[in-house]
Structures are given as C-alpha cells and as structure tokens.
Amino acid sequence: MRPTIKILEEELKEKVVNEAFEVLEEIGFFVENEEAIEILQKAGIKVDKKNQRAKIPRDMIKKSLKTAPSSITLYDRDGKETSKLEGDNICFDPGSAALQVLDAETNDIRLGLSKDFIEFSKVVDQLENIHAQSTSIICSDVPEVVQDRYRLYLGLIHSKKPIVTGTFLKESFGIMKDMLVSIRGGEKELKNKPLAIFDACPSPPLKWSDLTCQSIIDCAKYGIPSEFVSMPMTGANAPITILGSIVQHAAESLAGVVITQLVSPGAPIIWGGSPSAFDMRKGTTPMGSIDTMILDLGYVEIGKYLNLPTHAYLGMSDAKILDAQAGFETGMGSLLAGIGGVNMISGAGMIDFETTQSIQKVVIDNEICGMVYKFNKGIIQRDDPIAKNLLKMFDDKTTHLLSHDHTLKWFREEHYIPSNVVDRATNEEWKNKGRKSIGQRAKDRADKLVKKYPGISLDKDILNDLTKIMKYKDVDFKSFLE
Fold first, then answer.
1. Is residue 477 very low, low, confident or very high in pLDDT (cuts 50, 70, 90)?
2. Helices 147-158 and 460-470, axial angle in degrees (round to 10)
3. pLDDT tier at 85, thresholds 50, 70, 90
4. Strands, DSSP E only, in 206-255?
5. What is the pTM of this model?
C-alpha cells in the first residue's frame, strides 16, 4: 500500500473548479500578448482590447481540458526514458533561476557565477535521487541578454538529465529551442522525446503577461512541455484564505490550458505553481511555511482532479544557512510532496525565499529525496507467514539474525541506506572524524563529486553546434567550460 494524503474532499474540488470556471466566464483574465489575443479571438472568445481582458466560456475550458494530455514522459540527453509524469509518480529537480548562491567556503550569500553553475550541474548529474536538473543559477558574469540561453547551454553540456528551464526574454526561446533540437537531431524527435520543460509564470491576479503567453504559445507549437507556475500570495495579490487562493490559482492555470490547446490540441502542460502564504509581519513569501505547503497540496489535488500532470515548489527553506530550520522545512515539504504524489517536485538546494542555491544543500536534499522514495514504497510483505518461521529460530543460544540468509537477502531492500552525508556513527567515531556538521560532510561529498565528474560526454559536433547557436557578439563562451 502506497502512503497517501488528501486535504480536499471531492465535493470541494468540484466546487473550486466550478468557481474557477465562473471566474474566467464572468470576470475573465488579462492577456497582454498580441498573438494570444488573436488566437483567442479566432476561437470566438471576446477580448476587450482596451483593458486586455478575455472571458472564456465554460465549454471552451472543458474542451481544452479534454485535449490536454494526462501524462508526460521525459527523456535524458541520450534519449533514455527517465521519468513519467502521471498519477502519483514523483520526480525531484533543483530549484531554478536562483539569483544567489550560498558560498560553500565562506557560508555567505553572494551572486552566482558560471563556475557555481557548472559545479552544481556536475554534482546534480551524479545525484541518484534527483532525476532531473534545472537551469538552477543565474550567472552574473555574462551579459543579461544571454543569461537564459547560457544557463541552458551549460546545463545541456554538463548533465545528461532532462532539464527544467524557462525564459525571461521573448527572444531567448528560439535560440533555446534550437539547442534542444541540436541535441535531439530534429524538431519531430524533440517532440517525441521531451528533454526540457519550460516554466511559465502567470502574473497574479489573473494575468498572463506578454512574455509568459509567448512562452506557452511557442512551447505548444513545438510540443515542448509548459509548466504553469502560478504564484498567488495569500492576502497580498490573492484572497487571504487558502481555498480562495486555490480558486485563483485554478483560474489562472485554466486560462493557460485554453491558450496552449487552442495553439495545438494535445500540447503537453503541467499544472504547477509556486504560491506562498504571505507573511504580513515581514512582507516576505515564506516557502517553508506549513500554510504554503497546504496551499501547494491543495492546488495539486485540483490538478489531479482535472487529470493533468502536476508540479510544486516544495522541499525548500527560508533559512539563510544550513541550520535546523533548513532541515525541518525541507524535510517536511519534501515528504508531503512525495506522499501527495506531486509529479515534478522543484526546489532541492534552495534557501532564502527561493532566491539562493546551495551545492551543499542539494547534496543533503538528495538524501531526503531518497528517504521520500523509500517511504512511498510503503511496507511490503516479503514472506508468508510473515515472521513466524524466523521467530522459531530463537532459543537460548540463537539470539540474533545478523548473519542469517534472510537478513542478507532483504536488508538493502527493507532499509534506506544513506551516504555518509547522514551521520549514523557513534559519538566517539563522530568526534574522531573531526566533529563535522552535515554541511561540512555535504561539502566533502560535493567536492568529491566535482572531482569524480567524468568530463563532458557530449558529441564534439553537437557541442560545437551549441556554441554556434549560443554566439553573442565577441563573447567566447567555450572559455567558461575550461
């Protein structure tokens, strides 16, 4: 039996979806993109061009939901299947687009650099429980105009895993798409074997901006999965009630569903988000708040109710260092996401309100992800009778089963065995090994993984092709790879 968690009754899910339909039908949503407006108008949807508000009939929403796929399969750089986003399957990826990093040497937060991104990607590529990578860190040492494509460029070169990415500039998509096509060998091949997911964030309340509209339109044209990342903040740009914010999230996401399915029926989409229970005291958006976690689980249940692949930013912390807060917020969020069957769980490695990546934390989080996978397997009956035959072996001389064939057969299956990042030594052994904290042990493992990295395995012709696509003025991007 797989452990499960539910926080919304079926009747309440139906009510949320129905009210979201009413919002789009009666109030509408704002759409800033001219191509999106033309697409909507061509479908018979009225758009008030003066205030850029579109109202979508219920039947149009239902029709769009019918064509949106319920499953998305991701493939790695070599074309091997890695994850199937459907049902209660889960997959972890690091948080994306962090402006800053937690420096592993100084423990200070600073701007991210290309070196940070490359080392982070090399480590993530070798972490066994994180099955997708992301364009994790914004590199401040390259021109802003190329940062979108540059992060994808580095990610595709240094990791085989599928990648969660996105654009901050409309002009970036075509170049990024060409990189993915170069890897796959053609647009059809890319559509058949998705290598990347593009995040697109509607602007709360009820708005799809020029940039985000263009992103989901372009992705739909090429069959690249779009991950809707709706971001209502309770009491700030969304209702203070968690359920009210879930309704707003649903309305914003449904508008995206309609646009993508009008462009290309069957276009792959993921019902995702990064909302927050806004902290009125500090004016912050806590991602480690239990209220944020409840909000995430609620909108994910709506996505499952609509039979769509789901995503959430869970497993992060608002701490500024790798302390107990970082641990308990990350652990709680990751486990809840796993039990809730969130298909794509983003956020590994992140701290400080989704702004900062940490190479040490992503190594620690890999252990948490492994524990979540183990927990989701539940308790399995290995024998029948369950234990009686083994218990017969105990007598006044036999008092343990340490060397028994049954123990040797099953102990690795029954127990999650972490790396030495997790301390399970005696106090004496811990002291003899230098009294290291989990952050220090994680740094040691990250350093070893960077040194162990086997090198760039990408075909040289493809690497050269990517570099040509990446070309910008006289910047020598290959120099960043050395």
1. confident
2. 170
3. very high
4. 207-208, 226-230
5. 0.97
408 burial via Cβ count (<10 Å: 0-12, 13-18, 19+): exposed
User: For the chain, which residues make up each domain, given as ranges?
Assistant: 66-376
Residue 317, burial from CB neighbour count under 10 angstroms (0-12, 13-18, 19+): buried
Residue type, 415: H
pLDDT given at position 482: 58
- Amino acid at the residue 182: S
CA atoms within 13 A on the CB side of 15: 8
The pLDDT, as a whole number, for residue 49 is 83
Backbone phi, then psi, for 251, in 5-degree steps?
Answer: -65, -45
Cα(6)–Cα(77) distance, rounded to whole angstroms?
A: 35
Cis peptide leading into 3, omega within 30 of 0? Answer: no
DSSP 247-303: HHHHHHHHHHHHHHHHHSTT--EEEEE--B--BTTTTB--SS-HHHHHHHHHHHHHH
Tell me the CATH architecture of domain 66-376: Alpha-Beta Barrel (3.20)
- The per-residue pLDDT for 334 is 98
Structure confidence by residue, pLDDT tens digits, 298-347: 999 999 999 999 999 999 999 999 999 999 999 999 999 999 999 999 99
| CB contact burial 198-222 (16+ within 10 A = b; e otherwise) | bbbbbbbbbbbbebbbbbbbbbbbb
| Residue 377 contacts residue 370 (beta carbons within 8 Å) | no
- Residue 241 is predicted with a pLDDT of 98
